[in-house]
Design a protein that fits this description.
single chain; 8-stranded mixed sheet; alpha/beta; elongated; 24 helices
């Protein structure tokens, strides 16, 4: 039988929250499911979409990098930019694409490579590993918001139709854009895919026009190709040197892959086949693979062509910070070759998609954080509400913008670090998955791809150490909040769902006619001698009559690093023909016992008693054992969990320690 545990409280004894607090903590679980992003779930089983529409959802992040990628590539690689971009495209098509297609197979419910790696590591090492990856994921998504907003600001300020008084106020404009983004999420965020389809369609169409016209100028203007080829051979010599330098410099262009990693995570929105099941969503997986392949193909063409025309047609000085093409290379060409009218339309489209890329990143964080941290007990209770998280993330985005002064190039290192760590984790996950499946050659291929990602990540960190420093700050912040939250929430009831089998129910009904006395016993050999000794000890310590009727309770600790436990399955046993024993499994002995006691009270209407012996050893060490391993100071911790769960002393189960 299933029982739901709840303290005996009355509504008028607890003051209601203030209006502001009530608004902030309003349950927004249903609205949260409508957020697009890497860890979103579709609002309902029916609200899925064709794969190409979902591609636009991830594309507002992936395709929007065209707004700043050509300029970053030109600064990083100079005249080698087209060749370095070709290397990047090759890594996308032959590296990232097969890796994430495998992730789609292994994690078809949108959990991504983090969940794959979590399954491979148990206990605390798995949790800590996930927290570190979450830190880099937070770096990726937060910097997506700030960098995209900063680049949108660059397109606003540099537009010739914008008043000159806005120049020099990039930080303020970026903060306004971020505030508007936060305001959208405070109100709620729906119908994202329809908006994404429109933005991506318009933006890519405008880019086709700009690149086509620019390519025409490359072909028809005398000396453009000749000047570039001359500079190429003068600076870098023979073709082998060009190839070698391109291989060395391409990690600096890694932002051209940013946004691609979100494709798998939004695959829960992809419409599958009628025969799909949650256990085997074959149609969804097939659609996600098609989505990834098409997105990679489209972006590869745009990356190569945009890098080519911007390198050949824009003076190098214009790419530098403060230059007319800084952070807006294609917009520079749009204004120069198609006029300010078309250029302004292009700017508006770019601003919109960059701003919406920040929205996708915000949605990703709002779905990513609640997916893991509450389950680990490593998030405050308010983290389950959307609005407090929106305010917190917006505040962090404000801080990052102020630190980097809304400079696109200055944020590139931190952004690339977060992106590349996620790519490396995905490569590692699929390598291990292929090896576990006995696919030797495939695991070797994935291992080679992962090594390339590792090289790219290390090179980026060496070149731009600020990226890993920012990532370390996010990791440190997540770890600090997680540890503090875990300590604060350790004394909560970790489940309120208890299922008693028929034998356990029989034990409780029988004892309810007298006094329900439970004896906490750490299971050992479970022979008759163990229970004889335990009963004599309890009778002696608590001066109980020899004929006292007791039920032994034994909790087997599963994974103590888990916080939220599923339903407690309580089984009754009669051992050695005499002793009644209740057995259950949980991540924490004390929390499980407290939950069981409240269940017994609610099921029988009788206040139960539980008997412990004092734990030997240093109290501080025993408390640490409880926090880390779910055992230790069981008696006082059980009493504390009961005290917090049931504020009224008269209704609280009795705890005896001897």
């Amino acid at each position: 039988m299933t029982t739901t545990v709840h303290p005996r409280t009355t509504p008028d004894r607890e003051p209601g929250p203030g209006r502001l607090r009530g608004w902030l903590l309003e349950d927004m679980a249903d609205r949260a499911t409508s957020h697009p992003g890497p860890h979103a779930q579709p609002p309902s089983g029916d609200r899925t979409h064709p794969w190409w529409k979902v591609m636009c959802l991830t594309g507002v992040d992936y395709f929007s990098t065209l707004g700043y990628q050509p300029g970053i590539a030109a600064i990083a690689a100079g005249v080698l930019s087209p060749f370095a971009t070709l290397v990047l495209v090759a890594l996308t098509v032959f590296g990232a694409l097969p890796v994430y297609r495998r992730v789609a197979e292994e994690s078809p419910h949108g959990e991504g490579s983090i969940a794959m790696l979590e399954r491979l590591l148990s206990f605390w090492k798995g949790k800590l590993f996930v927290l570190v990856l979450l830190g880099f994921a937070a770096t990726d998504f937060l910097i997506t918001m700030t960098l995209s907003a900063a680049d949108a600001t660059a397109h606003i300020v540099e537009n010739p139709n914008v008043p000159a008084l806005l120049h020099g106020h990039q930080v303020a404009i970026t903060l306004v854009l971020l505030a508007l983004l936060g305001g959208v999420f405070l109100r709620g965020f729906t119908e994202a895919i329809g908006i994404a389809v429109t933005l991506v369609g318009v933006y890519l169409s405008l880019n086709v026009v700009v690149i086509a016209v620019s390519m025409w100028h490359v072909v028809t203007e005398p000396g453009v190709v000749t000047d570039w080829s001359t500079a190429l051979t003068t600076q870098h010599g023979d073709p082998l040197m060009i190839v070698a330098l391109s291989l060395l410099v391409f990690p600096k262009l890694a932002l051209g892959m940013s946004g691609f990693e979100t494709g798998v995570a939004v695959m829960t929105h992809v419409r599958g086949d009628h025969g799909d099941t949650e256990a085997d969503p074959a149609g969804r997986i097939r659609g996600a693979k098609r989505m990834l392949a098409v997105a990679a193909g489209i972006m590869s063409v745009f990356l190569v062509t945009s890098s080519f025309v911007t390198t050949l047609l824009i003076p190098p000085a214009a790419f530098q910070p403060g230059g007319a093409a800084s952070g807006r290379a294609l917009a520079y060409l749009a204004h120069g070759y198609l006029g300010n009218g078309f250029g302004t339309v292009y700017d508006v489209s770019t601003i919109a998609i960059l701003w919406f890329a920040g929205a996708s990143a915000m949605a990703g964080l709002l779905n990513l954080i609640p997916r893991y941290l509450p389950r680990y007990g490593m998030a405050p209770s308010w983290a389950r509400a959307v609005r407090p998280l929106v305010l917190l993330l917006t505040a962090v985005a404000f801080l990052v913008t102020w630190i980097f002064q809304a400079d696109v190039n200055a944020q590139g290192g931190a952004y690339a670090t977060g992106v590349l760590v996620l790519f490396t984790s995905a490569g590692t996950a699929v390598t291990l998955a292929a090896r576990r499946a006995g696919q030797r050659w495939l695991s070797r291929a994935f291992a080679v791809i992962t090594l390339v990602f590792v090289y790219t990540t290390v090179d980026n960190v060496v070149e731009r150490p600020d990226g890993v420093k920012i990532g370390a700050c996010f990791i440190g912040g997540i770890l600090a909040i997680s540890v503090a939250s875990r300590l604060n929430r350790s004394f909560e009831l970790r489940t309120t769902d208890v299922r008693l089998d028929e034998t356990a129910e029989l034990f409780l009904r029988d004892c309810a006619r007298r006094t329900i006395r439970l004896v906490a016993n750490e299971p050992g050999a479970r022979d008759r001698e163990e229970y004889d000794d335990k009963l004599r000890q309890i009778q002696s310590d608590h001066d109980l009559p020899l004929d006292t009727d007791v039920i032994f309770v034994e909790v087997t600790v599963t994974d103590p690093s888990d916080f939220e436990t599923g339903a407690l399955e309580v089984h009754g046993h009669v051992l050695h023909g005499t002793y009644r024993v209740l057995t259950l499994e949980s991540s924490s002995v004390a929390n499980a016992l407290a939950t069981l006691l409240l269940t017994v009270r609610d099921r029988t209407g009788v206040t139960p008693h539980i008997y412990f012996e004092w734990t030997e050893g240093n109290p501080a060490a025993n408390l640490a054992r409880f926090l880390l391993f779910g055992v230790g100071e069981v008696a006082p911790v059980t009493r504390e969990v009961l005290r917090r769960a049931e504020p009224h002393r008269r209704d609280r189960p009795r705890v005896h320690v001897g």
